[in-house]
Amino acid sequence: MLAANVDVVFIVTAPDGDLNLPRPLVTEKAFPENESVVTTVVSEESVENQFVYERRLGRRSQYEVVVPYNFQQQDGSWNRGLGDLALAVKHTLFDSLRNGTIFSVGGEMTFPTGKDDQGLGGGVTIAEPFVTASQMLPGDGFLHVHAGFEFPVSSEDPNEAYWRVAVGKTFAQNRWGRAWSPMVELLGATELGVSEDPQWDVVPQMQVTLSRRQHIMIDAGLRIPANDRSMRHTSFMMYFLWDWFDGGLLDGWR
Hints:
Blueprint lengths: L34 E8 L3 E12 L3 E14 L2 E6 L3 E11 L4 E10 L14 E13 L3 E13 L6 E10 L1 E2 L6 E13 L7 E11 L6 E10 L9 E8 L12
Antiparallel strand pairs: 1-2, 1-14, 2-3, 3-4, 3-5, 5-6, 6-7, 7-8, 8-9, 9-11, 10-11, 11-12, 12-13, 13-14
């Protein structure tokens, strides 16, 4: 009896583009991206700017480079300069268009490149493993869940755990028209081993696509402390996003 030769072939596919749901201001998405994002956060004593470059690695992974440039008020004057640089990777473990679900894991390293004595950086290297999941909801709704830990390296600073949830809904004028995506995020964080209550923030916001191709968009909202309001204040947040995989800055406007 002759034995048959059987070749087993594993096909690695990219997540379906319909799982690329609107991006919140803080909560990480599960979908791997090819895009550039400029984010600005304005509070009473600081203006934080971040340039984020995201690029696919193969079909299911992504790397990310974060370059911050900050302004910090200190002793009646303003300091400005480079903040803490960060590098991150993310990999999709599971996706199902049928169920509208995508799940990814990732990690980020933040390096103390900003001058902490001027309030421009944290002064410590931080390792941050995380998980993130996104879910399509009925009626063009969507949900993002993002959780992780921050571990300061070679530092006595406490470790931190965080969790973030974003929910929203997209209203599209037509298939290739402007899309409006109101959403709200609930952010929580706590220092591990410290007997203090977690910090909570609420972030109502609106994302709007600018180009007809929907690859250029802005998002703006407020990060509002839900507790410890005497120590923390409301800040304004916004980003400008260019999904350059879908076209150039001047493409897709007509």
